Amino acid sequence: MKGISKADVGVFGGSGFYSFLKIKEEISITTPYGEPSCKIIIGELEGVRVAFIPRHGKNHELPPHKINYRANVFAMKELGVKYIFGPCASGSLQPHVKPGQFVICDQFVDRTKGRIDTFYDGPSTTHISMAEPYCPVLRKIIAECAEELGIVCHKKGTVVVIQGPRFSTKSESRWFSNQGWEVISMTQYPECYLARELEMCYVNISLITDYDVGLEDQPEIKPVTTKEIIKIFNQNNEKLKNLLFKAIPMIPDKRNCICSNALKGAVLS
To answer: What's the average model confidence in pLDDT over 124-145?
Structure first.
């Protein structure tokens, strides 16, 4: 797209990202899939140009099932983005994954319904492997940087993605916990998969704000309060800022990960 500013790194996140992104310009992009959630902020972190889209919109007006994931991801591709960071506030499904900690997910389970989740509607049938849905290179960088910063971070975990906007029942939450899954979210799918379809690297950083409802009956877990969630959310934003400032400059110039050639052998002719 002629005249559009370019960026190598993209970030999907909440409005808190505005507080530490040095804003350069704000641009609008129209995609074949409609409008992204918001105008795209092009800024800079540690000398690297970063494109930022608040996935829920600038004023958090878009519930998770109404986000135009295809437009958001396609807009990043149009800007030349190769690496996407997808931090998201999440709930914990396991007692050992505590509020205030981070999880670098390596797997997801999709429990959404009705979301448009592919760019490939034909005529060529395209099957993308998602055995390893998150970029192993970015996950390693995030894990190493978190350790250096003293951020308590689980280096792997499975996120179950629910439709929203409602939260789970206790029975649903206990079911997810009993499966051994660690994190619950409403936005990870199809965001991460769409990035893989366009051969972009994607990493999730789940920012744990509370225990999900199915764990509240366990004696060692205290019922969460809104005040505590807000406190943890603000603390997590500061930790996320430090983590991204450290991780983004460590991104390699060349890619040879599974994400960079995801379409190889995927198209049935």
So the answer is: 95
